[in-house]
Amino acid sequence: MEIQVKLPELSPGVMGATISLWHYTEDDTIKRDDDLVEILTDKATFNVPSPVGGRIIKRFVSEGETVHTGDLLVTIESTQKPL
Which of 13, 22, 63, 76 has the most other CB atoms within 10 Å of its CB? Predict the structure, then answer.
């Protein structure tokens, strides 16, 4: 099953962030709760964890790009259900 990971709401009033570092590339195998990507807002740096273990199928944004709450970041192929 393909799991879509979207940018979560980071904090009240923060609607967007910049992708500063991807921790994994396409086809990498990850575990649940592994940090997928580091994002930077004007106030803080956050890591977005994986909701499932599996294989990264596709990354939809590159380092340096700006993303907004709800934007698709990555899809993961997994047999697990997200928590």
Answer: 76
